[in-house]
């Protein structure tokens, strides 16, 4: 039997049926009231039947004022989410559809922080007023007051309670990729002088307090995961030594599965991309040569972590996935982009019918390469990355709408569709 097919028991007592996970992908499929929709159900039913032991939802927001993108599901205010409330019943339907095959479905709970574009946030909220400088898309954030931080901790917990009640089988707290909790961890974006800034133990306080509140809300037997950066890959930012220290603190926080990723919007290493070279802290050489972006970091994390480790980022060959499990460095393989075009890939990897995952991101170039020379500037790279994201979003939407996939779709067409959808959905949200 392949290692990929081995079940995994989590510290809380739950059991994952196998070692493949669909990592979080923001869906953009909510209705204008920010409720989950029938499109979520159709999409997640396919992913459930696709064979992964664990599905993690895309960002579900705790604050509808500061979203990651238009079309996010937001549970705000969570206190309104009771049986009979429409948003609550929609979550129930989503959870049911996403677990039809007996797999787990965990809700990723998130606040976008400073990475909330102008068309979904009048004013982003962040640890400090450090603006994200990406093509003028992000306003200057306001620094959160302590009262707001305490309120947000309770919001994460309240949303986790709703997740459990509506049938999600676990939750993941998003503390990676530069969103709110992740931005508190970084000295570049967290310049606070109070108990929530300064030394790492202060910068990590928001995350640790959130995990305690969430655990209290969901009880001891419910899977609780954290997604964390190995490194922000940004000069002066959260770095690997911080990560190793934080993981040791997480050992005593009843975390069931630690997902290790890396990078932020400024250094989008999570997708294998580089940001501005002048700000970048280079990745380890051996990691760059490997198929999985963060594997080398996992080996060192394994030495200090007591909880199981999930790793997404670049896995495309069954042999590499098996070798990573075999090494003992990680326990679960995360797959994201390949499941946009092959939702049943996990089943085929498990049976051996597929040995390879699709890797369209390696060849997708905006305008057939016209806009993406290999020596491309940061802006050119960024536009190409957005084009690729648009391409994957378009496939998520096709799956959600039950349409046949169009693998011939060009990146430029996908990019334009992405822009139209993004602004159109934001406009509909504002009107409703
Ligand atoms: C379309 C898309 C949406 C994503 N949305 C999220 C998200 O909501 N939350 C998150 O933690 N990561 C998100 N990610 C990152 C993935 O979870 C994953 O870490 C990354 O894609 C690397 O895995 P892969 O190489 O298998 O695609 C997203 C990635 C893609 C491609």
Shape: globular
What is the total domain count? Answer: 1
Distance linking N and C termini: 52 Å
Overall pLDDT, averaged? 94
Fourth CATH level, the homologous superfamily: Aldolase class I
State the secondary-structure class: alpha/beta
Bound molecules: flavin mononucleotide
CATH architecture group name? Alpha-Beta Barrel
Number of strands: 13
Secondary structure layout:
Layout: E1 8-9, E2 15-16, E3 20-22, H1 38-49, E4 54-61, E5 73-74, H2 86-97, E6 104-110, E7 125-126, E8 142-143, H3 146-165, E9 170-175, H4 180-185, H5 200-203, H6 205-218, E10 224-229, H7 240-250, E11 257-261, H8 285-289, H9 295-304, E12 309-311, H10 318-326, E13 332-335, H11 338-341, H12 345-351, H13 378-400, H14 411-431
Parallel strand pairs: 3-4, 3-13, 4-5, 4-6, 6-9, 7-8, 9-10, 10-11, 11-12, 12-13
Antiparallel strand pairs: 1-2
Helix pairs in contact: 1-2, 1-13, 3-6, 7-9, 13-14
The structure holds flavin mononucleotide.
Keywords: Flavoprotein, Oxidoreductase
Pfam families: Oxidored_FMN
Organism: Stagnimonas aquatica
